[in-house]
Amino acid sequence: MVSRVIPVDPFDLVIFGGTGDLARRKILPGLYLRFLSGQMPEDAAIIAAARSDHDDDAYRAIIRKAIDEFVAKDKRDAKSIDAFLSRLSYVQVDAMGEGGWKELAGKIRKGMVHAFYFSVGPSLFGALAERLHKHKIADRKSRVVVEKPFGKDLASAQELNATLAQHFREEQIYRIDHYLGKETVQNLMAVRFGNMLFEPLWNAQYVDHIQITVAETVGVGGRGAYYDNSGAMRDMVQNHLMQLLCLIAMEPPNAFEPNAVRDEKLKVIRALDPVEPKDIVRGQYGPTGDEPGYIEDSENPESRTESYIALKLGISNWRWKGTPFYLRTGKKLKARASEIAVVFKDPPHSIFGEQEGRKGNVLVIRLQPNEGMNLRVTIKEPGPGGMRLIEVPLDMSFAEALGADAEDVPDAYERLIMDVIRGNQTLFMRGDEVEAAWAWTDPLIEGWQGAGTKPATYDAGSSGPEDALALMHRDGRRWREIAV
């Protein structure tokens, strides 16, 4: 199997916040890998803009170091790195003032795709958008990429969307969620809508329940003060997990086209039932040995912010009414793992009787690590002695199935940035989708804030609070093991 690399059109990509952590860790290393693969055309240009004082050579030295640090050794070719760095230039720009904007305007070439990546805090979006138009750098064909958080509640999301809408049309705005760029997430749509095998079974008649898990082993660390104003609900559920839920639950769009896909995702969000307080579990990781707990990391002894959350959701539509969706995410858990598990119902009658250990069919989509899919099926245990049933996996990891080609699969940022250049918004969030997600999320947050409840403490390296186990047990179900 050979991966096809389709070059994009010539472009000027301006990265505001070009000296920041995201630019050094993800954006520039990802662009280098796209250059290495042959996807970047000869006359593409990357212009970094930030407030610090650098010339082109100094900035290129920063990115050379970033490539050495964040790109695998076997991908670091000295000649290719030099050629890539020659595409980079730097402009010192004052986002809130007038400094540097004329110099930036002079670097933008006519006849190119023009994309502007706002790798900065949302408070600067309006100022950047205003000055891009004031200095005639952006036009009606330009594209602008914005990073989450897309607000902290419905009111701030509406304000942010309104700010962007003053200068850009919705079809110019690319709200990036890197989870949607993962290969397995996109394969979820291929599995659902490209195979007759699954789609007829993808409903409440055949699916017992669905689990979505995003577990992390790290704590909040140096971002404790920021995280304490956010929490797992705002930081993960409202965007990443919500997007996974939409893709697993949405109706087939009429075409694999941006607005058709996003229309169906929006319908899922609007069909979500309100969540009862008994169906929400919140937790904070405690200290372990010399490792601080959440309270210490957040530097807030009175913190009531959750580093873990588990929810039971319902969707009121014909496809999913009666099928529960269980979502959980947390910091300092026992393993780093992200997966979606579709647990199918048992046959209505077993001709083999009740056999201990039999578990039924489960389709597991692994997002990280070891991206791939696993379908658990029932077979007869080999050997004499009667009909004994066992569960075995039909397993497909991308690394094994694609061999060497798996190494060339672009990561999320690589894919999404190239989609921006192509003008393909399918994997980006639309403004009304963001607002609908906040409209569902806000009452949940207001509910526990009004009640003044404190999250339960859980051990670092565990699967989360004990109450989260009870959330499933009372329904006669169990969480899947969190494992690599």
Question: Would you summarize the structure shown here?
Answer:
This protein has 484 residues and is of the alpha/beta class. The chain is 35% helix and 20% strand.
General form: globular
Distance from N terminus to C terminus (CA atoms, Å) equals: 27 Å
The total strand number stands at 15
CATH architecture annotation name of the largest domain: 2-Layer Sandwich
Helix-strand category: alpha/beta
Write the H/E string, N to C: EHEHHEHEHEHEHEHHHEHEEEEEEHHHEH
CATH topology of the largest domain: Dihydrodipicolinate Reductase, domain 2
- The CATH homologous superfamily of the largest domain corresponds to Dihydrodipicolinate Reductase, domain 2
Mean pLDDT: 89
The number of distinct structural domains comes to 2
**Strand residue content:** 15-25%
Q: How many strands, what sense, and barrel or not for the largest sheet?
A: 9 strands, mixed
CA-atom Rg in angstroms:
24 Å
Q: Low-confidence spans: pLDDT under 50, at least 5 residues?
A: none
The count of helical stretches stands at 15
Oligomer type: single chain
Helix content bin = 25-40%
Can you list the strand order of the major beta sheet? 14-13-12-11-7-10-9-8-15
What's the CATH class of the largest domain, please?
A: Alpha Beta
EC number: 1.1.1.49
Region (Disordered): 280-301
Binding site for NADP(+): 17-24, 51, 148
InterPro entries: G6P_DH, G6P_DH_AS, G6P_DH_C, G6P_DH_NAD-bd, NAD(P)-bd_dom_sf
